[in-house]
Amino acid sequence: MVRWRRVDTEDAFLEATQPAVDLVFNLARRLAATAPDAEDLVQETYLRAWRAWRSGTRPRRAEPWLATICLNVGRDRARWAARHPECPDIDGGDHFEGPSDVAETAIDRVEVAAALAGLPETGRVAVILSDVCGLTAREVAEVTGCPLGTALARIHRGRRALAERLGVADGSPREPGRRGESNAS
Amino acid sequence: MRHEPERLATRFLDGRMRRPERWRYERHLVECADCWTQVQQARAGRSAAESLRIVAPARIRERVRAIPDLDAGTDHLVPGRDRRTLVLTAVAVLVALVLSIVVTRDDGDRPTDAVAEVAAAYRDTTGWAVSTAAPPVRALVGLRWTETRVTAIDDDRVIGFRYAAGDGAAVLVVQRDGSFTTPSTAHPVRGGEWVTEVDGVTVFCTHLPDSVLVVGSEPHLVAKAARNLTHRES
User: From the CA of B146, how many Å to the nearest CA of chain A?
Assistant: First the structure.
């Protein structure tokens, strides 16, 4: 009887959390210094989530819950890494092609990753959660523990700062914007 | 519409403007350099950040799927105990092992099968499932941890950590939920440790304090790895 209950719990956990693997991996990849560290961070995130699940935690949505865990673990590890510096692997390791639709110019991913890594933390984290991981602004606010308006401002300022660092923020012919513009994923 | 470039651009790009407001704002963008810059910069930054999205590789998904199966059991290997604690614990284990050897001496098949299966796994672990469990140490006697595998032996969960080098040298560190009973072919070493050989593979049993098997084809490397495991400090 105990064994069947555990199997049900495991199945429910995996069903709820596996769809967020890409999100957690993308977040981990931006928080960790190297690709292997990012993989460890993903594992640690899911391990902590599993233990919380086993203790009765049932989040309304898995994505912001897992992102919060990953962010907290990543920050702890970053503090440790700051005391033990290594050569950072900004965007090394395995690459797995995903959508690449930079609007204005073709920009090298390594350059983008380096520019993103150089942003102040609040803007960097907001842009990572919103644009790299695909969370809504409301979910970004939930994960970072701030009001929605603050999260929107951080996302906006982070995007602008990133564009300035990449030198892609110059003017182009003024046209009305895309209708229904939204960052919701 | 109050003129607050950042707030308006944020609401526009986040899709929070209703249609009439959005139309007015789009007409405003043609005339206002500040608002236009806000929108263009944010769009460019968003696109650049989105270009960093990647799909998680299959091995990540596999590791995630294995998390519930691997949670239990890996904290049996407790790293970083100090020497004094290890010595006192080893003494207690020695007494228990002597008693257990006396009690189980006649039961030759079960422990021999378990030790033989572990020895066979040193050469071929394809029958064991890949695991995401982290090893007690990432490097051992100059060998680096390469993979973790799990299986079940006599209803006990058994986990193996493989360490290897580029020149082919390798050891397998194996732990189970229960303990490895001393086989009749074992040679006592000290403090309850024993060593045996199965089909050319050396199997060394040490204690951390639970019994752990260190398995390899080079006896000196196996013994050295076992010593490192028992004497590493936090």
Answer: 12
